[in-house]
Structure formats: structure tokens, C-alpha cells
Amino acid sequence: MSMQNKAQMVEAVMFFGERGGVCKQMLFAEFEALLDGVVNMPEFADQQVRIAYVVINPRLLIKAAVFFYLDFDEKGAPDSGWNIPLQHLSEKAGRGPDLGAGPIRLACRSQCPVSWHQMHLWDPSLAPGHNDLILIRDAVKRNSLGLLVEDDKAQAVAPERLQMASEDNWYAPEASREAADRQAEKLDQEHRLKTAQLIKQQRLRITSLSQQHEEELAKFKLASQEQAKSLQAQIQGLRLALSQQQELNASLKTELETQAASFQAAREALAEQLRAQEQHGRSESDILRRQFEGELQAKVAAAVADYKERVAIRDVELAYRAEQEGQLREELERLKGEREQQAGQSGEQVLERLAKLGVIFVVYHPAAGHLTIPLQDVARYQDNPMAYAAAKCFVSEAQYRQWLAHYQQPTCEALLPSGERCAIPIDRVDSPSRFAIGDSNCCARHKASHRLRTVS
């Protein structure tokens, strides 16, 4: 084998499919060309793909691995703002399982040497039968990339170079016992090392499963809180409509009772006059009766005409008001459209020009880390940065704000009998999803009193 063809360490990238398993492999130089926009990958269009960066030795054994995410747009081009230092992470990574060449250097979500890149990494599955580390080990062994392999077979010793010891040195009990002791000690050392590596692998798997469970629990908690808020808003709206309808019914009932009392009073007054006139004679009584009926009919007709006129005036006023409201609404919609058009033409054009120049919008929020904000999410982030960061942490905005106050000043927030805060330093909770009011922000003494009040 010539010097230029001598096998050496190789960097490669492996893509995982949505159903698991390695679906594509390429050398790191090809991956850099993909990032530079030389080629696209339409099969990954509009997807977030799980990828593993691996360092392979000349015997096709893995020495280091970094598990990371990469987003592709609708045309299959990778995210232009992606900037994870894979080689640096692989060099600074902690120890992982042994894949044949000793413990590998492993960088993943639960074991990341650079904290602000943690959100862009993922944890490999270590479940039996679906172990991602075993999948990439077997893929490297198949050598689909055509890597040069070092021939590690031992060279046979020529017979003429063999030398025979003298007969007096054939038996050496003491030396054999020492060699056996050294061999036993070496085997015991290897057994201890393998046991420690197995324990570390199981701890890594437990950490990965715990983090996945916490993320799923945070998602379900956020969804339930949002649903409860929506139902509460609907109940409040129905209560308000019911209250308004009850007030309107009460007003109409009062007006009807007032009109009925007025008619009853008028009828009683006329009836009294009729009884007084009946005493002076039937003829005069008939005249008064006819006069009473005429006046009553006239009053009723006048009252009916008056109410009809009021109703007509009210209808005209309502129609005019509805017309004015429609005109005002149309004017308001037109002004909103013009304002949004002007704002969009100014702000969006500037952001698009900056994005085309390669500017990346990155912000930092505690727990969420450094967030790369896509161009289409900039407006939503400007409206409410806290809500955007809370969504990335899978918690509500209120819980994130309460956790942030605790994170910035981890002291007990319970109130003493004097009205002052306890302010005893406590352990900081690093994850918003594990933060609980009355427990995470209280010292041990106030936690106990809170639990007693809860039980009682």
C-alpha cells in the first residue's frame, strides 16, 4: 500500500429517516458542500432531520459522534443560519459507550459540552433492538462510503527467525505464576472497565428517557392550560350575555307595568265620574257613558299612535346608526389595511434584505438558550418575546415569568408573620417545566408548612 493511499481518520455524516435507521451517508466534505448551497436534498424538503457526525478510524471503528438537528426548506436547501461547530463538540465531548475502539466521545442533548448548542442536539435511542449507536456502528462496518481500511492482521514470523530456548529454561514456575497473576489482574481490570462503561451507558439512557418524559409532560400541561383558558373565556362571555339579557328583560317589564298602571288609573277615574253622573239620571248617564267611551278610545288611539311614532323614530335611528357603524367599520378596515401594508413594506423589506445578506436573528433566553428566529417568526417574537421563549420551553408565559424571577434571584418568596419575605437562598431550578409555585420557590421550612396547608 502506497503512502498516499494509507488509511487515516475519516469524518462522515449519517442521516436518520423518520421511521428510524440510517437512510443516507456522506463524507464531511460533501456535507460542507451541502451547507454551502452547492447541492440540495429534495427528499428532505420542509423537514427537520436527525443527523449524526462521526469520526471513523482506519479499522472502521467509531471514535466520536455528535447527534444534531438540521432544518431544510421547501426546496430541500439546508438552513442558512445553521452554525454548530461539530468538530469542536466532538473533541470536547464526554465519554460514551464502547463501540469497539474504546469509549467514544459522545455529544448529544443530555451530554453537551457547550450549553448554548444543547437545544440543537438530540439524544440517541439506546433501547434494545432500536439502539441508534449500534445502527451507525453497523453502517460504518458495511463501508458504503468506500473508505480505505487498515490491514490489522498480524504478520507471520519466518521460521528461520524463530529461536528455541535451552532445556533448562523450559520450565519456569515462578515466572508462569507471575504471568498468570498479571493476566488475572488485567482481566479483572478489563471487567471493571466494561462494567463502568455499561453503567455509564445505562445512566445516559435513563437521562435521555427522563428528559423526553419531562418534555412530553410539559407539552401536555401547556395544552391543558390553554384549553382551560379558552373554556373560561367562553363561560365569561356567556355569563355577560345572560346578564345583559336579564337587564333588558327587567327594563321592558318595568316599562310595561308602568303603562298598565297608567291605563288602570285613567279607567278608574272615568269609572268614578260615570258613577257620579248616574245619580243625576239615565239620560245624563248615557251621555257621560258615551263621552267616557269616546274619550277612552281617543286616549287609546292617541297612545297607540304615540308609541307607533316612537317605534318608527327608533327604527330610523337604529338604521342610521347601523349605516354609520358600517361606514366606520369599512373605514377602519381600510385604514388597518393601509397601515399593515405600509408597516409590512417597511419592516418586512428591511428584514428580508438583512436575511439575504446572511444576517441571522439570534436571541438568548434563560432555559431556552440561544434561539435562531426564522424570518417568518420575527413579528411574533416582537409582539411577545416572553411568550415565544415560553413556547420553546413548553410552558405557559405566566409560569415562565415566575420561573425567570426565581432563576434571577433564587431566594424563598414566602411571607413571614411580620409581612416581610423570608429571602433565604435556595437551590435554583434550571428548567421551567420542573418549577412549581409554593415548592420550588420556598425554603425547606416553608415547603413543609405549604404541604400541611394543602393536606388540611
From TrEMBL:
Q: Which organism is it from?
A: Pseudomonas zhanjiangensis
Coiled coil stretches, renumbered: 228-273
UniProt keywords, alphabetically = Coiled coil
Q: Which domain of life is it from?
A: Bacteria
Name of this protein = Chromosome partitioning protein ParA
